[in-house]
Amino acid sequence: MKLYNILTGAMIAALMSSCSDYLDVKPYGRVVPKTAEEFSALLNSDLDAIDQGQTNYLIPNLSHTATTLDAEFSDNFEVCLTSNSDGVVSRLRSYVGDAISNNSTNSIYSGLYEVVRNCNIVLNEMEERGTEESDKMLALAHAMRGVAYYQLMRYFCGVPEPGNTSSQLGVPLVEVFDMEATPARSTLAQTITFIENDLKMALSIHMTDGVYRFTDDVVSGYLCRLYFWTQQWDKALPLAQEILRKYPLLSGSDYVDMMKSFGPLKGNQMIKAYRSSSSDQTTEGTLTTMSTRPVSVRLLNCYYGDEKSRDVRYDLCFNSRRQAKSKVFCGMRAAEFALIEAECYYHLDKPTEALASINRLRSMRIADYTDLKMNELPGILDTEIITEDVTGESLTPLMALILNERRKELFIEGDRFFELKRNGAPEFASFNNGVKYVTRSYMYTFPIPIREFDITGNLVQNPGYTEVITK
C-alpha cells in the first residue's frame, strides 16, 4: 500500500503518540490533519500493515493464523509429537492457556482498538464532506471500524445465542472519543448491531477504489461473515451466493497457483495480507517453526478413502512427514462462501441444496469426483472432538461433512479455532513433555485485559477469568 506523503513523519508521530490508549485520542496542542487527503494517512498506515503482513488483527498474518490459531490453539496439530529437530528449536506453545496466562492475547485487544481509534479520528475530526476523497475516507473508516469490532467480538465475546444476545456480554463500543468517558461493555446484541450498521454505512457510500482494499465486495463478505457468526442464515445465504457469482471457484492448477501467490490479488481472492511481498521469504520463518509439530492424524482422516491421492489440497498442505507446507493465504476468498452457503442451507432445513453445494466444492478439489449421495455419506469420525453443531444439535453425517470440508479447505488460515468455539467449544487435552494441558470451554473467549479495568472501572470480565487473570 503506497502511503500518501502528505503528513511529515513528525506530525504523524505527534498524532499517534497522543493516542496510546483508545480513550486518549484528543491531540490537544498538536498539529492535526485538515483535508480528507491528509486524514487518509491515518488509515493508510493500517492498510500498509496488512500489505506488509504485519499483525494488526484486521487481516491477521501467517504467524497468527497458522502458528497461533492453528498450530497452538486448535486440534489441527499433534502437540504431543512436538520436537526439536533439524536444528530447529520448537517455540510453539502447548495450548491456548499458555497465551492467556502470559497476557499474549492483550495485544489483540489493544491492536484492534487502535484501529478503532484511527477510524474514529477520521469520522469525528474530518470536516471535509461531499468530495470524492472524503467519501472514500468515510467508507473506509466505517468498513475498518466494523471489521475491527467484528474481530473483537469473535475473540472477546461468547458465541451468539439467538434470542439471548441482549443478555450476553459485548465489547465496549467507542463511537465518539471522549477522554473523560469510561465505556462499559455493551450487550452482544448492541455489538452486533453496531458492526452491522458500520458495514452497511460503508456499503451505502460505495467504495470501488481497490487502492483502499475494503471495497464493497470485501465489506459484503464481512457482512456475510457477521450474519454467519450470528446464525442469521437467511441473511448470510444470499450474500454468500452473490459473492460466488462474482468470484467463481477455481480448480486444479489454477487453484494451487492462486493459493501460493504473493503480491496482487489472484483468482477469487478478495483481500489478503502480504500484497507487498514478492517471495515466500516473508513466511519462511513461520513455516519453519510449524515444522516442529506434525499435523494431526485426525485432520488427515478427513480425507476419505483414496482422496489423499486425488484431492489437490492434500499435496498443497502437507508433506510426507506430516508437516504443513507452503500454503500461505491470509484473507478472504470465494471458497469460504461456498462453505457458508452449504451450512446456511443445512440450518434452513434444505439438506438437498446443502449437499449439492458441498459436492460442488469437492468437485473443484478432487480429481475424477463422483457426487456423494445422501444415503452414502461418510460416517462421523469417532476421533472428532466436535460432537454438536452451532445450534447445540448432535452432528449428523451431512453436518460433519460440511465441517470436515471447512477444516481441509481453510487449513492454517486461522479458522479451526473459531470453528471449535462456534460448534460447542469442546474441551480437549494436549500433552507435551509429560504434562497434560486442557483447553477449557471458557478459554475460547479471551479475557478483557486487566489494564482496561484500571482505565474503566465499570467493566465486567468474561466468565472463567475473574480469579485467575492477574496484571
Lateral arrangement of strands in the main beta sheet: 1-2
Helix content: 40-55%
Number of helices: 19
H/E element string?
HHHHHHEEHHHHEHHHHEHHHHEEH
Largest sheet: 2 strands, antiparallel
Describe this structure in words.
The protein has 471 residues and is mainly alpha-helical. The chain has 19 helices and 6 strands. The strands form 3 sheets. A two-stranded antiparallel sheet has the order 1-2. A two-stranded antiparallel ribbon has the order 3-4. It is globular and about 60 Å long.
SSE diagram, text form:
Elements: H1 9-17, H2 36-52, H3 62-72, H4 96-101, H5 106-125, H6 132-156, E1 169-172, E2 185-187, H7 188-205, H8 216-229, H9 233-246, H10 252-259, E3 269-272, H11 284-290, H12 297-300, H13 307-310, H14 312-317, E4 331-333, H15 334-347, H16 351-363, H17 397-409, H18 416-422, E5 428-432, E6 435-439, H19 450-455
Helix pairs in contact: 2-5, 2-6, 3-11, 5-6, 6-7, 6-8, 7-8, 8-9, 9-15, 15-16, 15-17, 16-17
Features:
471 residues, two-stranded antiparallel ribbon, 19 helices, globular, disordered N terminus
Structure at a glance:
The protein has about 475 residues and is mostly helical.
